[in-house]
Amino acid sequence: MVETLEWGPFGVKASTTDGRVFRADQAVVTLPLGILKAGRVRFIPELPEEKQLAIAQLGLADAVKLFFHFEERIFPEGIVELYVPGANPDEWWSSTAGHGVGVEILTALATGDKARELLALPEEAALKNALQTLRQALGRPDLTPNKARLAHWQDEPHILGAYSKASVGASKARSVLARPVGYRLFFAGEHTASNAWAATVHGAYASGRRAAQEILALKPQTPRQAFRGREVRALVPSAQS
Amino acid sequence: MKTLVIGAGAAGLAAAQDLQKANHQVVVLEAQHRVGGRIRTDRSFAAVPIELGAEFIHSSQVPTYPLPAQFGLRTHYFNQQEDTLVRLPDGSLRTIAQVGCQERGYNNIRMVDWPAASGEESLAEYLQRNQLSGQKIPYKLQEYISDFDNPRRLSAQAALEFLYDKSAEEGDFRILDGYD
């Protein structure tokens, strides 16, 4: 993994934990918010203060997905999703819908306090509690899956969290995180998408394309007036050639 | 021009693809032994794939919507109205189409006049100030709350920016063959 990322007028230089060095004119940093928050990659020099503040302000959602495999269909015909206000988990859907199979996998999502509550338990107990919610919601105390598991991202060493969340006071943080730094570092990832698109694959995808466009705008054929000020020109070697 | 792309998730791969198409030299660095980031399809749990990470394409209004068809992948549409049940306080189950927010239903979210957020207030403060609770909250906002956190901890402004987006006007598409 990348351990340090040096940036400056010379370009960028990434050094990995296994001792390899990669140099380029610029970098697109798509490190997950959890990795940025944990400071796992050292930027040399450090990122501007506004970026560091935004990294701290923007929340990281606690989230856990739970999967229950049943030998029979559970949801009524034509139903694919169930919302149980106040319950834990409160959001359930069928991950077999549209497959035309006789079994059913119900997937549940819990976030925030609910996720923390479940993740504090051993996996088996968390699954049992969640199943109890489903039984109550559907009025089917007999419901018994033949297989169950859960998944979360908070302990994945190269991810460290599910997705960003716009905490109170952080409505501008994502747009700050999306800004390039010194025409050397460009930023993408779900946490750099707009508040409308963040925390999703389409947000991540669109942010990657946006970062590519920002870099392509630095190309030599770009009219010089696109770069304002001497400092900027000095940082774009290809624009001088 | 040479670019390092750090991370081979959806963002990094999209950036790398566009740069490569423009004849840039691109090196993608990935810490794990797989690409995809927080997209991770599991095929060992059951005969049907499950998604340990991202699972849906959120409406036909987003740039990833055309991709499954381009790769010959099948999707299933969750309309989140007739096909979604909500459990009411009396314990009965009704579809969102039957009991969902009529006055500010998510199909006409953009037509209703949602009041603006006041500064950096929380979503809980916003909902209380505007007397929005229970069935007055459209399903897409309920889902936003379920997907993130307690409204006390969420920015009202950011939630409204989501709610006013085109992508919040429709249901979700699930990729039957797996997101990866």
Automatic annotation (TrEMBL), chain A:
<dbReference type="InterPro" id="IPR002937">
    <property type="entry name" value="Amino_oxidase"/>
</dbReference>
<protein>
    <recommendedName>
        <fullName>Amine oxidase domain-containing protein</fullName>
    </recommendedName>
</protein>
<dbReference type="InterPro" id="IPR050281">
    <property type="entry name" value="Flavin_monoamine_oxidase"/>
</dbReference>
<dbReference type="InterPro" id="IPR036188">
    <property type="entry name" value="FAD/NAD-bd_sf"/>
</dbReference>
<feature type="domain" description="Amine oxidase">
    <location>
        <begin position="2"/>
        <end position="216"/>
    </location>
</feature>
<dbReference type="Pfam" id="PF01593">
    <property type="entry name" value="Amino_oxidase"/>
</dbReference>
<dbReference type="GO" id="GO:0016491">
    <property type="term" value="F:oxidoreductase activity"/>
</dbReference>
From TrEMBL, chain B:
<protein>
    <submittedName>
        <fullName>Putrescine oxidase</fullName>
        <ecNumber>1.4.3.10</ecNumber>
    </submittedName>
</protein>
<feature type="domain" description="Amine oxidase">
    <location>
        <begin position="11"/>
        <end position="81"/>
    </location>
</feature>
<keyword id="KW-0560">Oxidoreductase</keyword>
<dbReference type="InterPro" id="IPR036188">
    <property type="entry name" value="FAD/NAD-bd_sf"/>
</dbReference>
<dbReference type="InterPro" id="IPR002937">
    <property type="entry name" value="Amino_oxidase"/>
</dbReference>
<dbReference type="Pfam" id="PF01593">
    <property type="entry name" value="Amino_oxidase"/>
</dbReference>
<dbReference type="InterPro" id="IPR050281">
    <property type="entry name" value="Flavin_monoamine_oxidase"/>
</dbReference>
<dbReference type="GO" id="GO:0050232">
    <property type="term" value="F:putrescine oxidase activity"/>
</dbReference>
